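Support request, please re-run this one:
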Amino acid sequence: MLIKKAEVARFMLWMALFPFLTVGVGNAVLLAVPQARETLFALDDGPHGSAWRFAWFCLAYLYWAFTAWFCARLMYGREFPHDATAGWDPAQKDLAHKLARRVPRALGLVATVPLAVAMFQVNGLYGVVLGGLAAAFLAFVVLRHKLPLLRGSARRPGESHLRHFKRLPGTAWACIAALVGVSWIVFFALWSAPVTAGRAIGSPALLLVALGGWTLFGSLVLSYWPNTHAWPTFNWLPLVLFAAFSELDNHPVADARHAVAPADWRDRRIELTEHYREWMRHHRAGEPVYFVAVAGGASRAAFWGGMALGQLEDHARRQGRRFAENVFMLSGISGGSLGAAAFVSVVAAEPREAVVTARLEAFLEKDSLAPVVGSLLFPDLAQRFLPLFDAVRATDRSLALEDAWIADWRALAGGNNEVAQWWAGPLTAPLPPAQAARRDGERNLPSMVLNTVRLEDGQRMLQSNLRFELPDAFDLLDARFDTRHLTLAGAVHNSARFPYVSPAGSVRMAPASPAASAGTGGASAPGQPPAKAKLPLWGHLGDGGYHEGSGAATLADIVDKLMGQGLVRRDAQGRLVACATAEAAASCPNPVVLVMLDNQPEAFGANWRRHIDGRPLQPDPWRLAKDWPLPELSAPPLGLVRAWTSNSVRAEWRLSRLAGNDPERYVELRLPRYPGARQPSMNWQLDDDSRLLMKRAAARDCSSPAAVNLADASLCENLKRLRKWIAAEGGAP
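Re-run finished. Output below.
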């Protein structure tokens, strides 16, 4: 009997496979993924939160639930020429009859009630609204036959619920046309204007509309239509098409269609040590030289890095002192690169009297998730199955994310046309175009190195406004790579290619490189560059955190390189000092301070490098580790992840050792875990509460209220150390 019931269950599942899948995926993502829950919190706040955005979400919510119920009803209600239930005994058919009526209603119930309950926990009013919509929808599902337009012929006693129509009625065709029309309208809106349309609709609504569209396509095209012709169901076809076109690569790291960069600006970059000497020539004697690493973590890293640096700069400006102009290098990873690049851009654009954090917040608070999610779920996904889309208009979801940053910066710049184009221009755009020929009186500005990684071998890749070589890293802006059209937004994205949300970016050899010439086989005409399609693929780039997530490794290598040139030395007490020249008799009055910004909310623990008083916390090999559940299954993958994250720990320890483990010369600003507060997620969209928590932490004056835990106390102590450096007239504070 159990075997017969299992056969009925398999039949019901296969016939309505797509409604089951999309309802399950929607609930799993929105209820269980922290990043998705954050988008629900952001529905009514921030620059894009509004009643309209919640209204779009409500419509998408009903669309998703209705398509699941409607498609299941069609699949169970149509009398197909090939009856898969032929040969079943009466008990099996009776069970199928009952399920045919109850399963679509159950799908509607599961698609509405859990999300309404979750929304009530996020926002009481919105939860009540969703609850009311769920009740109305379920009442419609149960009582629809009493409505005049939907009232059908009365069923005869004992008539099957599994087979009761041979062709679709006109109302069903009209409903299908309307549902498909909604999906295509959203598709073309996101294809033509991913930033505007994506932000207007919002990520949660986009997900639900996409799931509803997949339900329609899978149920009607892959299941309903072939069954009407007595063909096998094509539910397997998406996997075959996806595999067949998986080699299509429409994610170049520097696409000429996106922005046109000046003719090889990369060669005009200044060499690291040359720039350092010129930078030091304009540096005030006795003032510190900062080297800053900004760890990764999507928008959380960007906002924490931007707010921490911005608050220090605003503090310096209020005191008539300098901070940003004393930062020589910012090393960014993932979202930390966005925060670092935003800080440099705002400092370069704003006069000295401006409030930096206000402009940074206006830039970093924007929703960067909706444009990329919309492109991922609609045009870019369609490209996986129908490659012709990209030939008409770019479907690369990378461009949606980069366009969002470009548009946000243009809006921030206002009428300043030159400044407004910085993020659509080369990586050097926010900096003086010829720093080697800088004029007296020009401001010192921080240089940037944005870290990424080649996925094929985990090799570190560097993107910087300066030219330099490191023994175990490649320069992505080397002329041998086809990266002439790389924009500042593109460089930030290369460092922050968040897994799956952002695609791996392909790097090809430049047309003039020996590898490119060999790869084309001499097919191009003399004097003409080879066709872009024939350029050899060098590799794919992923999030810089794949190598190590702190940015400290590259920063330590740069300090090492300057020490090897005699431009950074140790004084008589073993502390790092910055020198303007490499001569042995040169005076080195400028202390070097290494700063680490980390955005992972955590309590004070063994993975911190400093105690509250600044003393280094040495690793304790005898500390008992927490036991893992199901170690036979969990130990290998968790061990790999922990070993990978240990790369960041080792890089930070190395940076600390370079500073001589001196708490005044190596300063950590780590986001504390505040008890009772919802911690910000690692996401491309943050809600108001998450941003407010980080903004208040970065602005702590540490006089009141008292620190709530050791992590908060440690942040206060380190903020005091940096503020003392800012206030010092020269030498150690």
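The CA atoms of residues 169 and 689 lie 50 Å apart. The first helix runs from residue 2 to 15.
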